[in-house]
Design brief:
Layout: E1 20-27, H1 30-41, E2 44-47, E3 55-60, E4 63-70, E5 81-86, H2 90-99, E6 103-111, E7 115-121, E8 127-133, E9 148-155, H3 158-169, E10 172-175, E11 183-188, E12 191-198, E13 210-216, H4 220-229, E14 233-241, E15 244-250, E16 256-262
InterPro entries: Anthracycline_SecMetBiosynth, Glyas_Bleomycin-R_OHBP_Dase, Glyoxalase_6, VOC_core
Protein name: VOC domain-containing protein
């Protein structure tokens, strides 16, 4: 997980294809959601492209780290944090998604002069975005509290969907060495950038397959308490894992995300 901080794109160059370069949250009430995350992570907000409706970019220390937008009234998209994976050609990637059994729900379309995007789902139904950068390369800051540090696909059968991401984005999948574990790490140019976690029957029935975004915090337990005080709730209590201390929570509209204090 910690090695993902070395992803290209944070030094003024484009992210390598297949690398998560941005996370975005589409909600019904943007004002309350901005207040929630502003209080939790210290984010400030600036207007972004309005191609899908009202949208703001969250900033930390003057660097853009995430986006929050307004869901259209007729949208079927879930209220969920969605990672965007970098692509050199979003139209070709969208075609490959369809060819490999996925679905393209939005786009490809231009986001003003920022870039070109599509929103798709893999064969298991997990939603993700595809981003072809122009003026907006993606997140400008990572590895510090208040920024996304990892993205993990939670699905029933990890092995069944791994081939999809290998084909569509050119990921190199490396299985976990743990016996009986259905967990693979996705690599780009030799670096771990994301993971696929097959949880079998433990997959939440009310959510189905989904991508989980991890945000770095200084103190997981304190951050969990802050989430609750702001009107969110705990999905999985804080506990130790191989990467550090972690907890899963949900915001005011039920969008789940994880809080992590990575081991250093």
């Amino acid at each position: 997980m910690t090695e993902a901080r070395g992803s290209a794109g944070l030094n003024g160059t484009a992210y390598a294809p297949g690398t998560p370069c941005w996370v975005s949250l589409m909600v019904h009430g943007t004002a309350a959601t901005q207040e929630f995350y502003g209080e939790l992570f210290g984010w400030k907000f600036q207007p972004g492209p309005q191609h899908l409706g009202p949208y703001v970019r969250a900033q930390l220390d003057g660097q853009e780290v995430a986006g929050i937008g307004q869901l259209p009234r007729d949208s079927q998209l879930p209220v969920a944090w969605t990672p965007y994976l970098a692509s050199d050609d979003v139209d070709l990637t969208a075609e490959t998604v369809r060819h490999c059994g996925g679905t393209v729900g939005v786009g490809p379309l231009d986001a003003d002069d920022a870039g070109r995007l599509a929103i798709a789902s893999d064969p298991s139904g997990a939603v993700f975005g595809v981003w072809q950068a122009a003026a907006h390369l993606g997140a400008g800051l990572a590895g510090v509290p208040g920024t996304p540090v990892w993205n993990e696909l939670v699905t029933r059968d990890g092995a069944g969907v791994t081939r999809f991401y290998e084909t569509v984005f050119g990921h190199e999948a490396k299985p976990s060495v743990s016996a009986g574990s259905d967990y693979v790490t996705l690599h780009v140019e030799g670096r771990p950038v994301a993971a696929i976690n097959g949880v079998g029957a433990a997959l939440p029935r009310d959510r189905g397959a989904h991508w989980m975004t991890y945000f770095e915090v200084v103190d997981v337990d304190a951050a969990v308490a802050r989430v609750v005080s702001l009107g969110g709730h705990v999905v999985e209590p804080a506990h130790e894992c191989p990467h550090g201390r972690v907890a899963s929570v949900a915001d005011l509209e039920g969008a789940s995300f994880s809080l992590v204090r990575t081991s250093r």
